[in-house]
Specification:
BirA Bifunctional Protein, domain 2; ATP binding; protein biosynthesis; Anticodon-bd; 19 strands; alpha+beta; five-stranded mixed sheet; aminoacyl-trna synthetase; Rossmann fold
């Protein structure tokens, strides 16, 4: 479970009302009412469920599967030996961790120290809750590191920032901009903060995607994290911290989702291909179902995450809409004609394009389609983002661009007045 957002004071104690219907379609269009569209998509797409406690949501398996795929940091070796079971290191927050840093770090040979955690966090102070984006409880990854020199810390800050760019752009297919926060917006107590920022064209809002902080020596001074350097001199460590959260999922939904529901990039979809039998009256139904099962087996053996929807209490059309709502990147249909011709019909979720694929070329062409979908989602999102960027040089131009939901590129001096 992951709690999401508290409601405003006039709705305190009440959960968000989401319209329940027997149909699969959405009541709101993305361009007409973005907020209601988003609320409907995350529920109908089976990403979350609202909970009776104010400001809390339940993360459903469809959302957790995405988060699991993005958890890429695991310990697999101990020295030169492989671990039988991979483990994740999960320390707690700074106030608990850093007093022990001062015990673990004695000399320069104890550095660098690098720790990583995957856990849930509760924050009671916030406003304007939005599922995944701003919430009372959320899941996150966070790293804490200590170095002997500032140069090492500076290098890691940018290495981690590049890792977060990689996650957004190459997994979530969401374009981001790397940069440095202003002094006013940097992490409290830190030396400086770097960030990757996403942009939602429909709202004209930027969203902080992940942060990589250089903490400097402020916490080292506070918690007495000292070491003896290679010259035998006493010194304080230089520290970093960095994190990203389940907000990444919300950004992905906002960028790629459409009026049919979720649109998931293949790299993070727990089901990359859904196979649906389409039997007609007097058709070889068993043969079609066997072909579907064989298709899934072939795809799974090649490393493609595929499932078959063989439920007989739903029509093929209903299944199409259901899996479109859930954002599965590729749908494969097998009907009597496909069965007779030893082929399948593939339908892309991102643009609804259809192609008939011979079974002999199944794995190769499905892989090509998934790669193309991943690339296309990023390119389309980047084109939409870039079309919103406007260069301004005066305050009047700034205000006008802001009113038009533009992403503004402007001179910045970082001086407070």
């Amino acid at each position: 479970m992951a709690g999401k957002g508290a409601n405003s004071s006039n709705t305190k104690g009440k959960k968000k009302e989401v319209k329940k219907e027997t149909g699969l379609g959405l009541s709101y269009k993305k361009d007409d009412n973005f907020g209601e569209w988003y609320s409907e998509v995350v529920v109908n797409g089976e990403m979350i469920e609202y909970y009776d406690i104010s400001g809390c949501y339940i993360l459903r398996p469809w959302a957790m599967s995405i988060w699991d795929i993005m958890q890429v940091a695991w310990v697999t070796k101990s020295g030169e030996s492989d671990l039988e079971v991979p483990i994740a290191i999960r320390p707690t927050s700074e106030t608990v961790m850093y007093p022990y840093f001062s015990k673990w770090i004695r000399g320069h040979r104890d550095l660098p120290l690098r720790l990583n955690q995957w856990c849930n966090v509760v924050r009671w102070e916030f406003s304007n809750p939005t599922p995944f984006i701003r919430s009372r409880e959320f899941l996150w990854q966070e790293g804490h590191t200590a170095f002997a020199t500032k140069e090492e810390a500076d290098t890691e800050v940018l290495d981690i920032l590049e890792l977060y760019r990689h996650i957004y752009e190459e997994f979530l297919a969401v374009p981001v901009i790397k940069g440095k926060k202003s002094e006013h917006e940097k992490f409290a107590g830190g030396l400086y903060t770097t960030t990757v920022e996403a942009f939602i064209p429909n709202t004209g809002r930027g969203i902080q995607g992940a942060t990589s902080h250089c903490l400097g020596q402020n916490f080292a001074k506070m918690f007495e994290i000292n070491f003896e350097n290679d010259k035998g001199e006493k010194a304080m460590v230089w520290q970093n911290s960095w994190a990203y959260t389940t907000r990444t999922i919300g950004v992905m939904i906002m960028v790629h989702g459409d009026d049919k529901g979720l649109v998931l990039p293949p790299k993070i979809a727990s089901v990359q291909v859904i196979v649906i039998p389409v039997p007609y009256k007097d058709a070889n139904t068993q043969g079609i179902f066997d072909a579907c099962a064989a298709t899934v087996k072939t795809l799974n053996e090649s490393g493609i995450r595929a499932e078959v929807d063989s439920r007989d209490n739903y029509s093929p059309g209903w299944k199409y809409s259901h899996w479109e709502m859930k954002g599965v990147p590729l749908r494969i249909e097998i009907g009597p004609k496909d069965f007779a011709n030893n082929q399948v019909r593939a339908v892309r979720r991102d643009n609804s394009a259809k192609i008939d694929i011979p079974m002999a070329n199944l794995v190769e062409q499905v892989n090509d389609l998934l790669n193309n979908i991943q690339k296309s989602l990023f390119e389309v999102a980047k084109q939409k983002r870039d079309a919103c960027i406007q260069v301004v040089n005066t305050w009047e131009e700034f205000a006008e661009a802001l009113s038009q939901k533009k992403m503004i590129l402007a001179p910045w001096c970082d001086d407070e007045v």
